[in-house]
Amino acid sequence: METLISSAVLRLWVLCACCAITAYCQSYTTYLEEAKGADLVASLLRWRRELHKMPELGFLETSTSEYIRTQLDQMGIPYEYPVGKTGIRAGPLGKTDEGVPTIALRADMDGLPITEEVDVPYKSMTPGRMHACGHDAHMAMLLGAARLLKSNEASLPGGVVLLFQPAEEGLGGARMMIEEGALRGVGAIHGLHVWPALPAGVIGTRPGVLLAASDRFSFVVRGVGGHGAMPHTTRDPVVAAAAVVMALQVLVARETSPMDSAVVTVSTFNTGPGATNVIPESVKLSGTVRALANDTFHRLRIRVGQVATGIAAGYGCVVDNVTWSEVPYPPTRNDERLSALVREVATNLLESPPESGDTDKSLTRGSAKVQEVGTAMTAEDFSFYGDVVPQTAFTVLGIGDSAKGTNVGLHNPRFQMNDEQLPLGAALHAALATAWLEQQAQRQQEQESGGTAATTADVHEETDDDLNDASQPDADSDGVAMSVATAADSGEDPRIESLRKYAREKGVKRMPPWLRKVLARESEFAHAVAQADFEDGLRERLEQARLRREEQQRKHAAAAADAAGTADAPAVEGSPSSHDEL
Ligand SMILES: [Zn+2]
Ligand SMILES: [Zn+2]
């Protein structure tokens, strides 16, 4: 039953509200037809296969990055490089004015240290390296989206930024992209991953948590070695480490609620070169800890060291060199609003709208091709974007087809991309970006027609409540702001028009806080003010998110230490991470 529930793909019934407005739907539904045009299909195939030949590991994607930049040059799309060592921030496509609503589309660029086992004409040219996670397809689909958006650029009511991100596989390239400004001005971000477990052509999303938080550990069980014929003269670390491996299973089986989801996997057990008649001095273990809930994740990270130390001590051995990665991945969560928009857009792309009055078809539209997927215990550094961008959605694109062999799992040396799905991925990226921008424009229009009072309320709705401090009163400037604001309300003060002019010339980013606050009351400037405030706080928010996680960790460490009756949690040292993530 548990398997059935956890792996179930729940069918979703979608009611398409937007189809009441024909023009709104049609603005992006043609993207799929365009993407299926012979020209773009040929380009998608070429990009995907050329990139497949040249896989590079995280932060070493120099040739890959150069290849992408060449394609962007050919399309006439400007970009910034490097952002995050080898990363690229392309665009914005569409409107480039300061403060317009902007959405980012993201593709990861790194390959894996895997030797490809499938013989195809475009097989990896680099021994021991393979695009076994579909990141070649992600880049090709984003280039495809770039072309679609470029050809419809004039009608975009905002900006679209394209992020080609390095080092998703364990090194947290997303975090470096954020730190180097990739998200400035961005109010929403969409990521797409090919998914062999989902039938080809199906689009999967899920509001809330989609993927797990993840971290990896390693430690050494140290004993006293000796002759294999005389174990009584040793402290055998092999037997102790074997017991530790078994005991760690209890952390999930007996300490985690059956309603919760968590994993503790010991994946390496290394006794060194050794000999059959020698008991070694030490055994090195390593593995991964994952959980959907942050609390569970932090508790497990503490308990791994405690249990290992306690069990090893029972065998007369010690545990040392406990290390965790420097950048544990948080859970990947989908914003409910953006996830709902993904469902709506995907449905409109894949199924034509019902005849007017056909309520039966309205109710079942999208049920076959757009599905709510279950959570997975894999992880993604896309989760870092969720720390700082209010609306994030990570969507999966089904490529599974047993006849073609494209249902082989990610990170498998026999993994294969289903190239027929490339146009759908490209169209989905482009369509979602367009739909989101139209949604923002429509909302702004409604506010303008409904008066300016609602503007700031909407701005606050667009930002993450507990992260955004833009709405907090500024004690020093409140008096000034209020008096100017009152004058603005009267509509007669000539100073106000001069301030507006000043803001138009200089851009709201350069305005002092009190003036920004005044301008936020006016629909013309409200979005720009929200974006400027958001950008100003970006680095700070990333830091706050990190501090929050550390605080949670400390809290759990203290609680766990209390519960175990020990004075301190085991020593933890940082080490470079190498997750085997999505
Ligand atoms: Zn991967
Ligand atoms: Zn991946």
Account of the 3D structure:
This protein is an alpha/beta fold. The protein folds into three domains: 2-12 and 31-208 and 369-445, Aminopeptidase; 213-329 and 543-575, Alpha-Beta Plaits (2-Layer Sandwich), CATH 3.30.70.360; 470-536, no CATH class. 42% of the residues lie in helices and 18% in strands. It has helices spanning 2-7, 22-35, 38-53, 62-75, 135-151, 173-179, 237-248, 250-253, 294-314, 336-350, 359-364, 383-388, 422-449, 455-461, 478-490, 494-506, 513-519, 523-536, 538-564, and strands spanning 10-11, 79-80, 88-94, 102-108, 159-165, 188-199, 203-205, 208-211, 213-222, 226-227, 262-270, 278-279, 282-291, 318-325, 332-334, 370-372, 391-400, 573-575. The strands form four sheets. It has a nine-stranded mixed beta sheet, with helices on both faces. A five-stranded mixed beta sheet has the order 11-13-9-14-18. The model is unreliable at 1-25, 452-490 and 567-580 (pLDDT under 50). The protein binds zinc ion (ZN) (2 copies).
Number of domains: 3
CATH architecture of the largest domain: 3-Layer(aba) Sandwich
Largest beta-sheet characterization: 9 strands, mixed
Model regions low in confidence, pLDDT < 50 over at least 5 residues: 1-25, 452-490, 567-580
Strand content: 15-25%
Name of the CATH superfamily of the largest domain: Zn peptidases
Q: Please give the CATH class of the largest domain.
A: Alpha Beta
| Beta strand count | 18
Radius of gyration from the alpha-carbon trace, in angstroms:
27 Å
Figure out the total of helices: 19
Strand order of the main beta sheet, please?
1-16-7-17-6-4-5-3-2
**Terminal Cα separation, in Å?**
26 Å
Mean pLDDT over all positions: 84
User: Which structural class do the helices and strands define?
Assistant: alpha/beta
What sort of overall outline do the alpha carbons produce when their principal axes are compared? globular
Under CATH, the topology of the largest domain can be stated as Aminopeptidase
What is the helix fraction of residues, given as a range?
40-55%
Bound molecules: zinc ion
